[in-house]
Design a protein that fits this description.
It is a single chain. This protein is α+β, with helices and mostly antiparallel strands. It has two domains: 82 residues, Luciferase, Domain 3 (Luciferase, domain 3, Roll), CATH 2.30.38; 79 residues, ANL, C-terminal domain (GMP Synthetase, Chain A, domain 3, 2-Layer Sandwich), CATH 3.30.300. 17% of the residues lie in helices and 31% in strands. The chain is built from four helices and ten strands. The strands form three sheets. Strands 1, 2, 3, 4 and 5 form a five-stranded antiparallel β-sheet that branches.
Length: 182
C-alpha cells in the first residue's frame, strides 16, 4: 500500500487538475489507474519562452499536459507513478519502469535497478532489468526473488526477458538514470 505521505496535493494555486485519459472519455478512473496529469492554469505559465514547438506540445485548449502519469485517491491526493515518455507498452500492458525499479530496490541485496525495453534484439523487443547488487549473486537467484516479490501480479508483461547484473547503472551529469527507452 502506498504511504499517504507519498501523495502530492494540488501545489499550484488557482489551478484545476485532472487526469486526461479518463476525463476525455468521461469515465471516472478507478483507484490506481494512472492517467496523464493536466492543469488549467490561471495567470501562470502560458508558454515556453521562445519555444513555440514545445509550447504546442504541452499546452492544449488552455490545459498544461505535464507528462506525469499519476492516479488520484478518494481524497483527491495525486500519486505520481511515472513519466509518460518513460512508460513502456508491451503486449498491450502499460509498464511503468519507476514502479518496478522501486519494488526491486526494496530488496535488501539490490542497490540500484534500471528497467528498459531493449529494441536491438532480433525478434520481439525484450524487457531488461539491470541490477546492481550488494553481494555477488546468480541471475537465477534474483529471478526467483523477483517472482517472490509479486512482480508477476503487476502484469504478465512485466517479467523480464533478461536480467543483467552490472557494476553500475548509467547516469547523466545530474545523477539521474539515463532513460534507455528513448
Amino acid at each position: 500500500m502506498v504511504n499517504i505521505y507519498d501523495g502530492v496535493n494540488t501545489a499550484i494555486r488557482n489551478a484545476k487538475r485532472r487526469m486526461s485519459e479518463f476525463d476525455e472519455k468521461k469515465n471516472k478512473p478507478s483507484q490506481f489507474d494512472p492517467g496523464t496529469t493536466v492543469y488549467k492554469l490561471v495567470e501562470k505559465l502560458k508558454s515556453y519562452y521562445n519555444d513555440e514547438k514545445q509550447t504546442e506540445a504541452v499546452f492544449r485548449n488552455g490545459w498544461l499536459y505535464t507528462g506525469d502519469m499519476a492516479y488520484m485517491d478518494n481524497e483527491n491526493r495525486m500519486y505520481i507513478v511515472s513519466r509518460k515518455d518513460n512508460m513502456i507498452i508491451r503486449a498491450g500492458v502499460n509498464i511503468y519502469p519507476e514502479k518496478i525499479e522501486q519494488m526491486l530496490e526494496n530488496d535488501n541485496n539490490i542497490v540500484r535497478a534500471n528497467v528498459y525495453l531493449d529494441r536491438k534484439e532480433n525478434s520481439q523487443p525484450g524487457l531488461v532489468f539491470q541490477i546492481v547488487t550488494r553481494h555477488e549473486e546468480k541471475t537465477e537467484s534474483i529471478r526467483k526473488r523477483i517472482i517472490e516479490m509479486g512482480l508477476e501480479k503487476i502484469g504478465a508483461g512485466c517479467m523480464p526477458d533478461r536480467i543483467e547484473i552490472v557494476d553500475k547503472i548509467n547516469t547523466g551529469v545530474s545523477g539521474k538514470k539515463v532513460n534507455m527507452n528513448k
